């Protein structure tokens, strides 16, 4: 068992019945700095220009990683939350569908994608598609938790770093 696991709270039937939500709030409260360092550890930062944080906990983790490593930060948000011009990508969640958006980019760059949990892989695939459409080269994926029993996510040559695997 990873030492961080004792700080993660399981919340049954959230956000809907049958889902066991991994609440990282206690972990961030107690060991935030260690979490950010662990998530950043295996990334080759010489080949990263920007950190892409995925709404909403990916904002917290990604912004801290960008600050730690002196990189720019790019948010990916739910539909209607960013000012135009944006590009959109719809995807399936483990409990429904959603659409993510990113502001249209005029400067190509190399990115690491950051999120708290990889569940089915739908969110990460959508963000990878957004990045591709937007001239960003995905160099790595950094996740706090990978629910390997829920996904068949293939990295397609993109290094996936997850701190905790279930």
Overall pLDDT score: 92
How many structural domains can be distinguished in the coordinates?
1
Secondary-structure element series: EEHEHEEEEHEE
In percent, how helical is the residue content? 10-25%
What's the Cα radius of gyration? Answer: 15 Å
- Biggest sheet strand order reads 5-6-4-3-7-8-9
Envelope shape? globular
Protein architecture, described:
It is a single chain. This protein has one domain (about 35-165): 3-Layer(aba) Sandwich (Rossmann fold), CATH 3.40.50.2020. Helices cover about 25% and strands about 40% of the residues. It has three helices and nine strands; from the N terminus they run ββαβαββββαββ. It has helices spanning about 25-40, 55-70, 120-135, and strands at about 10, 20-25, 50-55, 70-80, 85-95, 95-105, 110-120, 135-145, 160-165. The strands form two sheets. It has a seven-stranded mixed sheet with strand order 5-6-4-3-7-8-9, sandwiched between helices. A two-stranded antiparallel sheet has the order 1-2.
């Amino acid at each position: 068992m990873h030492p961080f696991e004792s700080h993660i709270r399981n919340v049954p039937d959230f956000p809907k019945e049958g889902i066991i939500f991994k609440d990282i709030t206690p972990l961030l409260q107690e060991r935030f700095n260690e979490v950010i360092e662990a998530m950043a550890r295996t990334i080759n930062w010489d080949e990263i220009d920007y950190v892409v944080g995925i709404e909403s906990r990916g904002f917290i983790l990604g912004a801290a990683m960008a600050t730690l490593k002196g990189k720019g930060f790019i948010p990916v948000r739910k539909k209607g939350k960013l000012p135009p011009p944006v590009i959109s990508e719809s995807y399936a969640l483990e409990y429904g569908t959603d659409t993510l958006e990113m502001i249209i980019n005029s400067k190509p760059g190399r990115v690491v994608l950051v999120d708290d949990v990889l569940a089915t892989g739908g969110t990460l695939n959508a963000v990878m598609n957004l990045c591709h459409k937007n001239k960003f080269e995905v160099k790595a994926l950094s996740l706090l938790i990978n629910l390997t029993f829920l996904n068949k996510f293939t990295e397609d040559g993109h290094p996936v770093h997850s701190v905790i695997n279930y």
